[in-house]
Every structure is written in structure tokens, then in C-alpha cells.
Amino acid sequence: MMRTIIVLSVAFVIGFIAYEYVNAGTREYTVNFASDKNLEVGEELTYVVSYTFIKFGEIKIIVKGKKVVDGMNYYSTVAYMDSYSGIPFVTLHMIYETTMNAKYYSVFFRGIVKKEEYTTFTEYYTDYTKDKTRIKKGKIKPYQLWTDSTTSTKQEFQDGLSILYFARIFSGSGKTVSLPCFVNEKRSITNMTSYTAVTGVSIDAVDYDVSCVRLDGTMNFVSVFGLTGYFEGWFSNDSASIPIVAKLKVIIGNVRVELKSWKKSGWMPPRLKKS
Hints:
Layout: H1 2-13, E1 19-20, E2 44-51, E3 54-69, E4 72-83, E5 93-100, E6 106-114, E7 119-127, E8 132-140, E9 144-152, H2 162-170, E10 176-183, E11 186-201, E12 210-219, E13 229-236, E14 243-250, E15 253-263
């Protein structure tokens, strides 16, 4: 059960909230990416994962690089997810990598899971001009390729990490969106609603309430590791749109993922202004 809790928490923070595509008529919303909510290379965010007063592990998310192709920005990012040593029944060591195009959709994804016996990898290479995604799965050290296949790509999609960055750009828009996703080799949809109301959020890292805007959604079925129902996330109410806190429901209650530390030039969590 404890392993499930931390995996669920990790999954939420990095955007691993994929809904089965059951409604072909769901609408999509195109975010204005000409906004000032651009990513900063070198940005590093660390989160602590907890249930009630028990802290299980940490997640570190880094913007690794940026390149310009035909005048368009492409960002590469990585997320490290590790449980604390000494926590009974919890052993989790995962790495997610993504490269996003100018609209913050995935063009490359790699997921690495470190197990006791060996380490596995999953990779998606997407070429939207050819409507194709190549899927590679296997084992590292010794290298063994288990799957090497190609699937058609009908539209741009989010992977398990790129969707977090899309949500950052989307936060504060006051819109509802249905996003195509490709997770666990399945096409799916993520639904989210962003709100414009400003609210204060308390975290241990600062001694004041952080000015935030909220984003939420609902799962109407049981997903991977039993994740289901309502979820919430709060983003800093500024041009950085840093994820501050996330909550989601599991069988035993709410799990909290909270910003612990950051490396971002000139940035501090914005203080909520008293009315």
C-alpha cells in the first residue's frame, strides 16, 4: 500500500494523469504560447511526497536544455523520483525525460525504472510530419531490446512528463481542456480545468502564504496503481507558474506533494497580498 501511495503521488506531479479516451467529441483548447510563461534552462524544482505526516520520498524536476529549430523552441526536461531509504515496503527509483516542441507537446519521451534485478526503459520517438511514433522497450545492463514497433500518430500528444509543463502554461487561463496523451502505449485523454481566482497556499519552505491559482480535474474510472477520482494542483501566480502543491485521492485519503526547494534565478514564491 505504501508503495502505491508514493507512486501515485509521483504520477500526479509529473502529469501522469491519463484518462481513457471515451468521448470523441471532447474539445481541445489551444494555449497562447506567445505568453511570458517561458521555461528557464537550469531551473531545478524539488518536491517532497507525503501522506498525513509521513514523508515517503522526493521528486526533482530539471529543465535541461533548449534548442531553436526553424525559429521554434524545443525544451528538454528530466524528472528524478526516489523514495527515501529505510521506508518499509517502499522502493521507488524512476527517471522520466521529455523533449517538447514549441506548443509543449511531446516529440521524445524516455522512462527508466530501476528495479532490484535490472533497469528497464521505455522510449517514444515521434515525428508529427510523418504521423508516426516509434516505441522501444527493453532492459539496461545487459542491454536487451524487448519491443521495437511503430504506431500511427493522428495528432500531437502529451507524455507522462510534458503534460506538467503544458499545465504550467495553461494555469490561470480560466479554461477547460481535453488533451490527447500517449501513456503506457495507449492513447488517452487528460481533462483539466484552470481557474483565475487567486488563493494562498502554505508550504514549509517559506513563512508566508504563496499566491497561487488552482487547477483541477476528475477521474471517472480506476487508473494505474488504483488512482481515481478528484485531483487538484496549485501553481504560483506569476510568469513562472511553478507547481507549488498537488493533492490527489487514493483509497486511504489525500496525498500531498509539496515544493521543498528550487534553483531558479531571481525567483521566490510570490507572497499572497492581503486585501
